[in-house]
Amino acid sequence: MASPPPTVLHAEAAPVLDLLTVPQVMDRLQLGRSAVYDLLRTRQLASITLGRARRIPSHSLTDFIRTRLEQEAA
């Protein structure tokens, strides 16, 4: 007798959280390393620390850009 197939999670059920490195954020924002770390230090850009590695969730970068665009429009 065959066992039932394993349950497969669909992308809608478990959203993927993309984590970016500091160099990736530097490339996307066209900023230097110090400027990106200043944004992290002042908490304008959210991040997490995994061991010694700093990672920025992609949605945090999107939120940061959206906030800056709204500030510029005001």
From TrEMBL:
Keywords: DNA-binding. InterPro entries: HTH_17. It comes from the Bacteria. One of its GO terms (molecular function) is DNA binding. Pfam families: HTH_17. Residues 19-68 form the Helix-turn-helix domain. This is DNA-binding protein. It comes from Streptomyces pluripotens.
